[in-house]
Amino acid sequence: MAKLKVALYWAASCGGCEIAQLQIGTKILKLVEAADIVFWPVAIDVKYKDVEAMADKSIDVTLFNGAIRNSEQEHIAKMLRAKSKALIAYGACAYEGGIPGLGNLFNRQMIFERVYRETPSTDNNGNIMPQPKTTVPEGELTIPEFYDTVRTLRQTVPVDYFIPGCPPEEKTTWLALDALISGKLPPAGTVISHSNKAVCEECERKRNVKKVSKFYRTFEIIPEAETCLLEQGLLCAGLATRGGCGALCPQANMPCTGCYGPVQGVIDQGAHFLSAVASVIDASSVADVKKVIEDIRDPAGTFYRYSLPDSLLRRARV
Amino acid sequence: MPLLAKTFAQLGIEEGRVRLDWVSASEGDRFAKLVNEMTEQVRKLGPFSRNGGGKDG
Question: What is the pTM of this model?
């Protein structure tokens, strides 16, 4: 059987997914047996023009990580979609926007102002900001256009599969790669994970009655090892997050932050998390409720930490 | 609701655009009054655009 042609690309990403793709360890030998990597900017010196020259659908699978936040990323996403039989959104950023997606609480102007002018350690008296086109003696230099809004891969091109996680756990990555190598792929559009239910199902902590009258940030308390973290007042996203990761963060005494995305069937992960938290608040009057939620300092950032671009509102109005 | 209001404030949705109330089928007058109030309130706030001012999104 001819070797599979595989491409990997990183858009608005931290690089963690590139490392995660290597986390499969020795199983990489099985992958290399079955596949030829034809494009992987982090590791191989294949150029964009080489990809442009490939025939449409000549790449069997592209693993695309990172969100779309500038014109270069959009361009390559569209190019790889045309050249690939299967395009897989790898990791939270490609799947639902990820951490870069929190940029949707602002716009380009606000972000540039902050980065290039306002930060205390910046000295920019000339008010120099990046420009899409600059003329220098040698000619004209261009850089990609920086968009106001971060988009997910699926909001840019049609996507065949999603591998959730920030980054995806080794076993989740292998679940997808193994399916590819053996040709036993699930129905198109599937989010590939060992679980379609909430992280709570995999979490070993004991759950009692949930009545929370005070919330804490993670540095404020040391939680008990055996009891549900949400019950102890930590904002654990587990109940609104797909499992498959093995509930690793709660095992390490840290509340789940929601990186595997929404549970099967939920459209807006942040709304799900918000209503779940609201339902466990122990307060008898509106005034009491307001006092309890004072401890939730950043609801938009906490509930939509990875999923803002994929939410119903997609971005904040600024 | 307070939690939703706090989140919406961060997302740039004004408080006046969301309201939670209960009306029974026999309170026709009250329903009409609430809807008219809400309509006026929202009209004063102006049209809702998903990204007030940005070119894309």
Answer: 0.90
